[in-house]
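Reply to thread "Modeling small-molecule complexes from scratch"

Following up on the discussion above, here's a worked example others can learn from. I took a protein sequence and the SMILES for 2-acetamido-2-deoxy-beta-D-glucopyranose and predicted the complex. Inputs first:
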Amino acid sequence: MIYGRSLFHIVASLIIFHLSGATKKGTEKQTTSETQKSVQCGTWTKHAEGGIFTSPNYPSKYPPDRECIYIIEAAPRQCIELYFDEKYSIEPSWECKFDHIEVRDGPFGFSPIIGRFCGQQNPPVIKSSGRFLWIKFFADGELESMGFSARYNFTPDPDFKDLGVLKPLPACEFEMGGPEGIVESVQIMKEGKASASEAVDCKWYIRAPPRSKIYLRFLDYEMQNSNECKRNFVAVYDGSSSVGDLKAKFCSTVANDVMLRTGLGVIRMWADEGSRNSRFQMLFTSFQEPPCEGNTFFCHSNMCINNTLVCNGLQNCVYPWDENHCKEKRKASLLDQLTNTSGTVIGVTSCIVIILIIISVIVQIKRLVKNMSKGNRTLTRQFSRRCLNLPIMSYALSEGQELQLTLQMWQRTLKTTTNCGDPLPSAFTTTTVGPTCPVRRAAAVTSAQEMLLS
Ligand SMILES: *[C@@H]1O[C@H](CO)[C@@H](O)[C@H](O)[C@H]1NC(C)=O
Ligand SMILES: [Ca+2]
Ligand SMILES: [Ca+2]
């Protein structure tokens, strides 16, 4: 399937059916044996420019006890127009409490409601404000009618009228898998999927190993036009890339981690021509549910992850259990080895260690004295954490003071920014932060040195 074309198809339908234990006019029904079945919810034909869907059996009577959900998705910068056929009849009731059609302006059942319809008069033309319409047809346990047939078209979003005829979007898809991996917007440029000035609509398909699910954790996220979802967003789908499986959509200033129910995750990033500095970086971790089988690590929550992810410098668990006590573990194994050798070796080694410690303490004191005499106050907090996450380092500096921060990163540079937004990009990096600019968490730091400049 050619991706560019598929954009112009409506992406998906979600058809949900369940026997509802409807109560009506005092007739109470047993709801204990509520069953879930996948049953036809009328026909739905889709074209590049729109489609048609109907209630079950239309134009014959729809069956009782039915709920159907239709979600329509247009390509970015398009809207949806929905028309109901005049051959229309849905059991009338006060406020359409019984059978009805409900239309919402968005992809979710909690999106803003446009209207609830029933009776003999077909609803007016409905226009979406964005790319989605969520439509539910509901029939209770008694009194059925003909139902409805609805037709929809995709139309250019008037918000983008000024841009004229838009260029087709470049094809942009990625496949990823394995126990963990990093999905990031820079892959678009690295792999030559689009030029720096083109709008992009990219999808990353993440496939976990069999019987595994996926946990997604944001390492970096920033939308250039934040809160403008029509211009840029990052979306997460759970199970397929169809709109019914849309799990979360981020376009504000924050993005939350996402736990998927399935082993197929789809990340989608949309950025228009003026939002190409929008960026994100996400760590995915494949996990299985407990009880944890051999060769997996228990995350103290409901996750079992591949053993190779323990102490690898990246937090794969929801809480950093996989990266805690890494140093201690290494020490313990060292001790184990030592007990196997003779006591003299231990004695010699500890002597050398003690001498080295004394020497380094002397050197440090000398340096400190030197710096103080120079007038610089040095806060040499030396971290030496190969695996541990560095805690949030906050500095409350007074006016005029500056802090020079030198971080030596191990393996990968992650979420290391000052709150003023300047990233610390390279593996070994020095930056100066001004007053009240806390440094956010840095993972996989081997050492950090802070020097207060007066
Ligand atoms: C863990 O990851 C390694 C390397 O990708 C793989 O070979 C191995 O099968 C995985 N183990 C489990 C238990 O999934
Ligand atoms: Ca009814
Ligand atoms: Ca890890």
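What I'd highlight from this example: The pocket of calcium ion (ligand 3) is lined by residues 309, 312, 314-316, 322-323 (CB under 6 Å). Helices lie at 3-6, 186-190, 326-340, 343-374. Questions welcome below.
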